[in-house]
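Hi team,

Filling in the usual template for the complex we talked about on Friday. All components are listed, including any nucleic acid strands or ligand strings, so the model treats them as one assembly.

SUBMITTER: L.P.
PURPOSE: interface mapping
COMPONENTS: two
RESIDUES: 763
SEQUENCES:
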Amino acid sequence: MRALLPGVRAVTLDLLRFTTAGAVDDGKSTLIGRLLYDSKQVFDDQLEHVAIASERRGGAGALDLALLTDGLRAEREQGITIDVAYRYFATPARRFIIADCPGHQQYTRNMVTGASTADVAVVLIDARRGVLEQSKRHAFLSTLLGIPRLVVAINKMDLVDYSRERFAELVAEFERFARKLQLQTHGDGVKHGITYVPISALRGDNVVERSAQMDWYEGPVLLEFLETVDVAYDHPYERPARFPVQWVIRPAASASAAATGVASDYRGYAGQLASGALQRGDEVVVLPGGGRTRIAAIDTYDGQLEEALAPMSLTLLLEDELDVSRGELICRPDEPALVGRELEADVCWMSEHALQARGRYVLKHTTRSATAIVDQIADRVDVHTLERTEPAAELALNDIGRVRLRTSVPLAFDPYARNRRTGSFILIDEASNETVGAGLIN
Amino acid sequence: MSVAAAQLGGAQAQARALHAARPLLSHLRALESEAIHVMREVAAEFERPALLFSGGKDSIVLLRLAEKAFRPAPFPFPLMHVDTGHNFPEVIEFRDRHVRELGEHLIVASVQESIDRGRVVEEQGPRASRNQLQTVTLLDAIAEHGFDAVLGGARRDEERARAKERVFSFRDDFGQWDPKRQRPELWNLYNGRIRRGENVRVFPISNWTELDVWEYIDEEQLEVPSIYFAHERPVFRRDGMLYAWRDGAELIDGERVFSETVRYRTVGDMTCTGGVLSQARTLREVVAEIAATRVTERGETRADDRVSEAAMEDRKKAGYF
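RESULT (copied from the run log):
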């Protein structure tokens, strides 16, 4: 029996997900194009496409690197980014997944989508225009969504003569604003600062290559930061185990199971370990019911394991016959999740039809779906001041507010600040089936 | 077994104290786990899902992921192949043998039948391709079997319209993709709610790159059709690509058939899939070749994407995968 799967090894992190956000014309697509181009991740045929398209749009011989990421016809025609795009690149140090979030239309919707899975947020600021509303909103949403690390890239430094003073001015301005943000704390309790990098995405200064124009800057260039930033503080060993049951495997009745000689009473609870680690023999409690048993085996296609770590997908076999089904949460009895039918959550609203008190929605939380009724909208966040206003009648598109909800069935959950997987939910409109809200449990 | 795993087995507490030795999933195992999660969500939330299996590398990976998601039980969905009738014979042979070995059920939706029934009209001439016709056959098969979710092996790194597509990609009752009206997709919470007649295309390996797919095939020692490895075959050159010569193919003036050592990076129709010059005869050699390549797989091998800047976007809007 193996202790761990092959492919589980001692690494700090070799897959980093980051999101990029900025106001219109901050040069975000150009920055991503530059990261891909300078780290030699652009293929010849893609480059040829960009060269032809740049010329067609009258770009006098210069490559418009933004065209590398703008995928849809309307985006290339209008020179804007419409929807979150995902990009992939690798350096010898790490693999990267970029969620490229447009800043103008539907900004909350796009930002929140990209930020929900990110380890690092890159916020762009135009050195000439200074710290705009949207940059602040992006930084706020990044911290609200629990992104562990924030880097502020001050772009277009070439247009302010690579001025050290202008950079210092913008850093000071952003720092004044950032005092109001709830920055994430490290496992050791240390509050992370924000990292500031002066760059020119257009000219390639301090993105991949160190700039010859800004010898006064001694910090890491952007790629170096992304390759080395430590976001592995939430190692599974330091987190409570959370296993939402996704699917029950019962092969007994089938012919193929008989052929493979699987025990006829095989009953496996399949799912993805949302956080923490589990070991064979651990005592567990199944929430919200509260039934207790032990883990008889941790099963996978590759054989049984002694121990499993988040985010593995696996199948648990339990010692006692409990009635466990999809939507229930398995954890350890000494560190259980909360259970309840009343929730208080920050909701990011993503629909043109406003969220209203007494509204009814489908709520999806881990692997459980329920009906939810909005009892009250307790407040709304003013993204200019980051202050919360008095009770609101509704939340409109792109609003964020504190909402009290009741659910048709009990949920087993954690506060979002402690667990992004068991602390999050989405709201779905019952009539249109659209995803209309993103919730972060308090 | 890795060093870290050995330490865990022997002295758990000691290993936990060693910060540097704390194990984590490799990027490939993290992607694998994410894909298994997506597949189980489909099984749990839809009435009649199906999985598209072409015998190509991406769908071979999907089948291994399905084994990991559902064994020891059989798959909770049938497999389906949209067969243009112009596939490589080696691939069709592999497809049938692989399905048999897995003990699963395969539905073949045939473009030839769509032509025979008059649902579509075949293109004529030396450049004729059945690529466009596949969409009609696919949509007909979805309607005929009442599928509400169809799993496929598309990846976001393949093409720029795909880079914008969700893991759960909603399609209306015409099968159309509307890129401007996609549902936001947050955390790992997928919204699979649809009305009758609508369906969702689901892409579990959205976040994988071509290199990830080959590294995974190598790590798992998966069998792939022989045309993925370098072999000698009769070919002809057209538009800068090397096409396989097959009976019935028409040559244009000046083209001639000659023998060349090639392999295929993608497995599509013989009529629109080009081979690449290669000496890679083992999985390791293929991985090394992909790691060093300077051209994308679709750019190097697919004539269908050379039509325009937005060829894939337009096909997807019409219901294509």
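MY TAKE: Residues 164-178 of chain A form the longest helix (15 residues). Residues 373 and 437 of chain A are 13 Å apart (CA to CA).

Thanks, L.
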